[in-house]
């Protein structure tokens, strides 16, 4: 294998690892779960539902629509980053196979 290509693959392997670490740290800072609304006595209440171990947690988040919208954006960002990290891990394995390290 050409030393130039080999060097590029080693650099890509390192860059891939750094991206995985960066995205994983950001994922940890973002909320997980989904937002649900419940109607009780004709009024809507919003909750963040997520799992903690084997328990399902339902956390009240209020009625402020701006806050709910921001939370939805953060949850969507978390899901996109999780998909990206999954793709990066697959690429990393492929690079390792080629470089054989």
Question: Secondary-structure map with pairings?
Answer:
Blueprint: H1 3-29, E1 34-40, E2 43-52, E3 55-62, H2 65-99
Helix pairs in contact: 1-2
Summed up, what is this model?
By secondary structure, the protein is an alpha+beta fold.
What does this structure look like?
- By secondary structure, the protein is an alpha+beta fold.
- The chain is built from two helices and three strands; from the N terminus they run αβββα.
- The protein has a three-stranded antiparallel sheet with strand order 1-2-3, with helices on one face.
- A hairpin with a 2-residue loop joins strand 1 (34-40) and strand 2.
- It is elongated, with a radius of gyration of 20 Å.
- The two termini are 14 Å apart.
Features:
101 residues; alpha+beta; 3-stranded antiparallel sheet; 2 helices; 3 strands; 25% strand
Number of domains: 1
Helicity, as a percent range: 55-70%
- The counted number of beta strands is 3
Query: What fraction of the residues are assigned to beta strands by DSSP?
Result: 15-25%
Based on Cα principal axes, name the global outline.
Answer: elongated
The profile of the biggest β sheet is: 3 strands, antiparallel
Arithmetic mean of pLDDT:
93
Structural class based on helices, strands and sheet pairing: alpha+beta
Strand order of the largest sheet: 1-2-3
Number of helices: 2
State the end-to-end distance: 14 Å
Could you state the order of secondary-structure elements as H and E? HEEEH
Taking all Cα atoms into account, the compactness measure Rg is: 20 Å
Poorly predicted sequence stretches spanning 5 or more consecutive residues: none
